[in-house]
Write a structure and sequence with these properties.
With 234 residues, the protein is of the alpha/beta class. The chain contains six helices and seven strands, in the order H-H-H-E-E-E-E-H-E-E-H-E-H. A hairpin with a 5-residue loop joins strand 2 and strand 3. The radius of gyration is 35 Å and the shape is elongated.
């Protein structure tokens, strides 16, 4: 009995295969007959296929061209940024303070003035944001290979809010921040612009767009509530 059942199964599979093959052959024959009787339909299908292939090739070429254009623009932007940063690196620290002041004014800050020098209490620039908030800026014109130490950040944190009553405390450096300095900036909600972020600001990014970024651009600190300035005794 088992052997007969196996033979029947094989025979059934062969019949099904012959049936499917016959149906497929009949379908192909019918299509070929219709196309033979209607050559305009064959030409239309061939034309549509040709147009479709040409459109796909054009789309792929356009996509490659756009990708290449984006790559070229990004390379050009980086080269321009590097040239610009090279010029900034050649500045004196006094010139850099005045340059940062001009960037603040460019972005709508008012009453901006350089106050750095002896007895500046860790503030190099004072002013107001476009919306009136008190802006206090510390500037460090260090060589690119250096890092801002935690001591510099500690001084700024201690003075920016308590002494200068900052609503926005901005620390600008031409180098990277050490880990301890970066952690302090994030903890105390200091807007710490490292070399890359300063490069973006210098290239046209508005200051407002950088306020929520940390020294590496990878963290968003909590917003500091507006500090009320102490009232003067009458």
């Amino acid at each position: 009995m088992p052997k007969r059942k196996v033979r029947r199964t094989k025979a059934r599979r062969q019949r099904e295969l012959r049936q499917r093959t016959g149906i497929a052959a009949a379908g192909i024959a019918a299509v070929l007959f219709v196309l033979w009787q209607s050559p305009w339909l064959l030409l239309g299908i061939a034309g549509a296929g040709t147009v479709g292939i040409a459109a796909w090739l054009l789309w792929k070429a356009h996509k490659r061209e756009r990708a290449g254009d984006r790559t070229w623009r990004e390379q050009d932007r980086r080269m321009e940024l590097e040239r610009s940063m090279t010029t900034i690196d050649a500045m004196t620290w006094q010139d850099f303070e005045h340059y940062v002041t001009e960037l603040c004014r460019r972005d709508g800050c008012t009453n901006v003035a350089v106050v750095g020098g002896s007895g500046d209490l860790a503030a190099d620039i004072l002013g107001n944001m476009p919306d009136g908030r008190r802006l206090v800026v510390q500037v460090k014109h260090y060589a690119p290979h250096r890092t801002v130490p935690s001591g510099d950040m500690q001084k700024f944190v201690g003075m920016a809010f308590n002494e200068h009553h900052a609503d926005v405390a901005l620390f600008v450096a031409t180098c990277e921040y050490g880990k301890a300095a970066r952690d302090l900036a994030i903890k105390h909600q200091i807007v710490a612009l490292n070399r890359n972020l300063f490069g973006s600001w210098n290239s046209g990014a508005p200051l407002e767009s950088l306020l929520s970024l940390s020294g590496t651009g990878g963290g968003v600190p909590r917003r500091r509530s507006a500090r009320r300035r102490p009232e003067k005794a009458s």
